[in-house]
Design a protein that fits this description.
With about 350 residues, the chain is α+β, with helices and mostly antiparallel strands. The chain is built from 13 helices and 5 strands. GO terms for molecular function: endonuclease activity.
Length: about 350
């Protein structure tokens, strides 16, 4: 059984993650709840967070200790050359990077050695994120919006229900991993099925509040597209009754269906004033994280009919727990802070 006095280290935690953990813990009380929160944000165990913090507190050390062993083939200068090449030519594969390193240093390096050196310097290969391109004008608008709400607390944000729509394709998921043996690559169990046009398609409306998720609304057919009239129907039948039952405020983005005249007229009639939303800011809305989790919870399979697919979506929606909702609301002030620090640029959320 591991205890706080254990000497076991966690050398596989990248240095940049260790720094993020330490910086976060500096501003928090050292309670079990805060350890667990920092662990969840950084995808670590709470034990690992405690060890990283105690190492810093007792030894004043941010980074991993260098590994022992025989003298390394690549000195610090060669390693930094590799790191700088990777940072400059970030689009290259590992094999291409090794070739480029040889061209610059006349030193041969294996992919494994290159990866180890890069990892030790906090450089890893990550999947690219899809983000809208921001103009300076849009960044300025985001910055202004965040500055106006810089001092809002989590309790202030919990007054709002965050809502949006999402489209889900039956076979739209990518980068799905299976645990299998090397010789099982052609086993149909490990195939990702494809269909013409992505299979069934369902438009979904939903929201997230401090009390949990709203009921969701699913489109009745693949070809059904939601216009302002349909959105107004969702507001009347689902969204507004949910708001009124819990005395909450409303958030929506600036999509044309949301800002249509008939929708604004209905809001005026009901005395609803939606939260003015920052343009091009899906990273500031926690409902976007809910959509991502919803898609991850959907079983990777081919559905016999559309009703089964819709039923799977509804079931996955109910499996998103309150702990996830609470963590997302806790993250909003940090999103605002990060956007301000980046002068209206994209956050990592």
């Amino acid at each position: 059984m591991r205890t706080m006095n254990s000497t076991k280290r966690h050398p596989n935690v990248p240095n940049n993650v260790r720094i993020a953990v330490i910086n976060a813990m500096k501003d928090l009380e050292k309670t079990e709840a805060n350890y667990q929160w920092v662990a969840k944000v950084n995808c670590l165990s709470s034990f690992c967070v405690k060890r990283i913090w105690l190492t810093y507190k007792n030894e004043g050390r941010y980074l991993n200790k260098p590994k022992g062993g025989s003298e390394k083939k690549f000195d610090q200068s060669a390693q930094m050359t590799l790191v700088n090449l990777a940072r400059w030519h970030y689009h290259l594969s590992q094999t291409e990077l090794c070739k480029l390193f040889y061209e610059h240093t006349n030193l041969e390096i294996s992919r494994r050695s290159a990866v180890e050196i890069l990892h030790n310097h906090g450089v890893k290969s990550y999947k690219g994120k899809f983000k809208p391109i921001l103009s300076q004008e849009q960044m300025d608008a985001r910055l202004k919006w965040c500055l106006e709400r810089e001092h809002w607390t989590v309790e202030d944000w919990k007054k709002y229900v965050f809502t949006d729509e999402c489209g889900i394709h039956e076979t739209g998921r990518r980068n799905v991993y299976f645990l299998r043996r090397p010789d099982e690559g052609d086993d149909p169990r490990f195939f990702l099925a494809t269909k013409n046009n992505g299979g069934f398609f369902v438009s979904v409306w939903g929201g997230v509040s401090q009390y949990g998720l709203t009921p969701i609304v699913c489109s009745l057919s693949d070809k059904e597209r939601w216009d302002a009239d349909h959105y107004l129907k969702i507001l009347k039948q689902v969204a507004v009754p949910f708001l009124e039952s819990l005395d909450l405020e409303f958030q929506q983005d600036n999509a044309s269906t949301h800002t249509a005249e008939i929708v604004q007229h209905y809001f005026d009639q009901k005395g609803i004033e939606p939260l003015p939303w920052s343009p091009h800011s899906p990273d500031l809305s926690i409902i976007e994280n809910i959509w991502h989790l919803l898609k991850l919870k959907l079983p990777v399979k081919v559905y016999e009919n559309r009703d089964d697919f819709v039923a799977a979506i509804r079931l996955a929606w109910t499996q998103i727990g309150q702990d996830v909702v609470d963590a997302l609301y806790e993250s909003i002030p940090n999103r605002i802070k990060e956007c301000i620090e980046k002068k209206g640029g994209h956050t990592h959320y």
